[in-house]
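User: Hello, beginner here. Can you help me understand these amino acid letters and fold codes? It all follows right here:
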Amino acid sequence: MESYLGLILVIALVVVLTAGGMFLLFRQSRKAPPPVKPPEAPPLPPREQAPPRGAVKEDEATTTTVPPPARTIEPPVAPEIEVPPPSAGRMVRLRARLARSQTTLGKGLLELLSRDRLDDDVWDEIEETLIGADVGIAPTQVMVEELRTRVKVLGSRTPEEVRGLLKEQLLAQIGPDMDRTLHVVKHGERPAVALVVGVNGTGKTTTTGKLARSLVGDGKHVVLGAADTFRAAAADQLQTWGDRVGAEVVRGPEGGDPASVAFDAVAKGMEVKADVVIVDTAGRLHTKTGLMDELGKVKRVIEKKATVDEVLLVLDATTGQNGMRQAQVFAEVVNITGIALTKLDGTAKGGIVISVQRELGVPVKLVGLGEGPDDLAPFDPEVFVDALLGD
């Protein structure tokens, strides 16, 4: 009995404790404050709002889906081919360029010969004027003696008579009957060949380009040979001249064999049925034996393929008697057939035309009267003398 009573007490105690615990837990849950909701974050501006998952931004869609435009490659523009004027009549057009020689040589002599009294002092002045204009000593002596004789015969002289007398003597010394034809006529299927020689600084390559331009203006089919392989800019310079008038240019490596380039140029001329092949040679110092021998080699190599019809020596009219020494040495190496006298517009010494012809027995065939592309003219003695005398 006592054991039952003890068990009942234990059970009652457990029940009381359990009920009390539940009561306390219930009270605390009722008094606990409600949880505080965290503040909502402000909405992002439209430009910063992240796009929905899987969507693509408009910018990205443009850059990733549209390919860049294809770049247009412009075709190379061919240089415009110029049509040069013909060579005929050029010296008449350019005669005003001889004004410096006209003032010193022509007008100076006219003034002296028009004096009422021609004593020994006046004749000495006439002689000095002629020598100073590079006419040369021997031609000067011939002219002075002839003028003395003619003046004595005439007695009193009008200005027209003096002018006619002087023109006659200048023409006689220049040699109006010399053959000044450029030999550039094609030989059947073989082109004519012109070799251009001279020292550096005379305008040799420029003269070669101007000559090609002049011949193209006369209706010739021209091929150029850039055999001046020792001067870096020479081939490029000649290429520019050729491109302007549609003339093909044959060139070799810098420092290459000039004779090989000359030979190839002639072969190309025969292949394309050209009328003329013009070969620009390296500028030679007339005092260098080895270089002059090389020039002779160029001519010999060309002659294995064709005949050299013209050998033009380019001389600077402003160099005076030094140019004469150059001409003499060149004539010993190659058979000079004509002279191209450059810068004649820049000198008062137009008498070099007389002295160089007398020394070499070779005619002046071309004269340079300016820096323009069409300022190379066939030499006309009568137009030249008239320009000197101011007619």
